[in-house]
Each structure stands twice: as structure tokens, then as C-alpha cells.
Specification:
InterPro entries: TatC (IPR002033). It is found in: Cell membrane; Membrane. This protein has 278 residues and is an all-alpha fold. Helix content is 82%, strand content 0%. Helix 4 packs across helix 5. It has one domain.
Length: 278
């Protein structure tokens, strides 16, 4: 009689986790939808703001063009949807955190929360750096490099694809400190080894910058240099976190601590099942 009850409990627990996951996904999609609906009436103004770095460097009388009939309508809507996702990222990541946090230990939560907040802030910082620093320099270079007699008229859809790829590239590149801390914390590599291979990191930073940025030296340097500085920041943080975390891990938990942790998981599981039934 005990086996069916155990199997039924495991099945109900699995179903409750699926329900919880579904609810978290619905909350995340709803947040994107609400932000999108709030921004749709201002989609044209949003695209104008995005196009400002290019429009500021174009010659007098020059403008952007639309080669497709529906582009003047669809391109701003597409940008607005992407902006809604970016704005809703903190809430989306909160839903992810709320789903996985009950299964984490306290020391894992202490490490995960700062990394979560810092990754969001660094991604936004990378996008802001691209918009305010890189775009004016890169577009100014392109405008001046145009041969005489050639009018620079950029298609609005091509421009959107370009800037979105640049936003993504700089946002990901600014996650270097988080990646360094995670790799060191997981034991994949030691901070001392990374410091010893600093020259290779600098080389790879310029290689990545050359691949991700336009073919001009200014944009490449503007991406490579922040990546190198952020690598040093991640190395600095990793060196100070790892000894304390390892010292905490070296202590073998007592039976009382293990029992208390098991009781905590059982209470959290019961709470999840209760919420799903409600």
C-alpha cells in the first residue's frame, strides 16, 4: 500500500511544479503584453528616438527611407515589441527566480541574487553605452566615409536590424563580470589562472569586438576596452567571493542542519501544492 501512495505523491508534486511553471510563464507574457500595449500609441516617437544617433550625423536634407510598403507601420511596432521585452526583463527574471528559488540552499541564494541584479544592470548599461557612445561615433564615421556623390539613405528596417544586433552584442558583452564570477565560483577555472592568462583575454576581447561591431576601428575599441575593464572587475569580485564561499563549503553540515534543511524543503513543497489547489 505504501508504494502507490509514494508514486501518487511524486506525480502530484510533478504536476504542481508544471502548474507553477505555467503560471510563471503566463505572468511573464502578461507583463510583456501590458508594456507593449502601453507603448504602442507612441511607437512612431520611439523609433524617432532610436534613429536620432543616425539622423544627427546625416547631411542636411538627408533622411531615412522605407523600401517596403508596410515598413513605416510594421517597423516601429516591431521595435516597440522589442522594447517591451527589454523593459519587462526584471519582472520576467523575477518569475524565473520565484520558480527556482525554493530549491536553492541559502548560500546559493546569497550568491544568485547579487548575480541576478548585476546581470540586469550590466545588460542595460551595455545597451546605454551602445546608444550614447558607440552609435554617434560609428554613424559619424560611416557618414564621412561615404564617397562623394553617394547619398546615404538607410532603410528603416535595415537600421532597426542593425541597432538591435548592436544592443544585443553590447548587452551580452557587458555580462563579462558575471560570467567570470560564475566560472570561478563553479570551479571551472581559478581566478589565478585567469589572471595569468590576461594577455589572451585581451586578444580575445578584440577578436570578439571585431566580429560583433561594424568594420571600423572606433567601434571595435569601444567594445573591446569595456570588456577588458569588466573582466578585471569580475576577477576582482571573484577573488573576494571564492575564499569565503569555499570556507563555508568546507564545513560539513551536522545531522540537525540536514534535518532542518529537509524540513524546509518539505514545507515549501507543501506550500506550492496548496497554492496550486487553490
Amino acid at each position: 500500500m505504501a508504494e502507490p501512495e509514494a508514486g501518487s505523491g511524486a506525480e502530484s508534486s510533478f504536476i504542481s511544479h508544471l502548474i507553477e511553471l505555467r503560471n510563471r510563464l503566463l505572468y511573464a507574457l502578461a507583463s510583456v503584453g501590458l508594456v507593449f500595449l502601453a507603448l504602442v500609441p507612441f511607437s512612431a516617437e520611439v523609433y524617432t528616438l532610436l534613429a536620432k544617433p543616425l539622423m544627427d550625423v546625416l547631411p542636411a536634407g538627408a533622411s531615412m527611407i522605407a523600401t517596403d510598403v508596410a515598413s513605416p507601420f510594421l517597423t516601429p511596432i516591431r521595435l516597440t515589441l522589442g522594447l517591451a521585452v527589454v523593459i519587462a526583463v526584471p519582472f520576467i527574471l523575477y518569475q524565473v527566480w520565484a520558480f527556482v528559488a525554493p530549491g536553492l540552499y541559502k548560500h546559493e541564494k546569497r550568491l544568485a541574487l547579487p548575480l541576478l541584479f548585476s546581470s540586469i544592470a550590466l545588460f542595460y548599461a551595455g545597451m546605454a553605452f551602445a546608444y550614447f557612445v558607440v552609435f554617434p561615433v560609428a554613424f559619424g564615421f560611416f557618414a564621412k566615409a561615404a564617397p562623394q556623390g553617394v547619398a546615404m539613405m538607410t532603410d528603416i528596417r535595415s537600421y532597426l536590424d542593425f541597432v538591435l544586433s548592436m544592443f544585443f552584442a553590447f548587452g551580452i558583452a557587458f555580462e563579462v563580470p558575471v560570467a567570470v564570477v560564475i566560472l570561478v565560483r563553479m570551479g571551472v577555472v581559478r581566478a589565478e589562472s585567469l589572471a595569468a592568462k590576461r594577455s589572451y583575454v585581451v586578444l580575445w576581447a578584440f577578436i570578439v569586438a571585431a566580429v560583433l561591431t561594424p568594420p571600423d576601428v572606433f567601434s571595435q575599441v569601444l567594445l573591446a576596452v569595456p570588456m577588458i575593464l569588466l573582466f578585471e572587475l569580475g576577477l576582482f569580485v571573484a577573488r573576494r567571493i571564492t575564499p569565503r564561499e569555499r570556507a563555508g563549503e568546507a564545513q560539513t553540515p551536522t545531522e540537525e542542519q540536514m534535518d532542518a534543511e529537509l524540513d524546509r524543503h518539505e514545507r515549501e513543497l507543501a506550500a506550492v501544492e496548496k497554492r496550486s489547489k487553490e
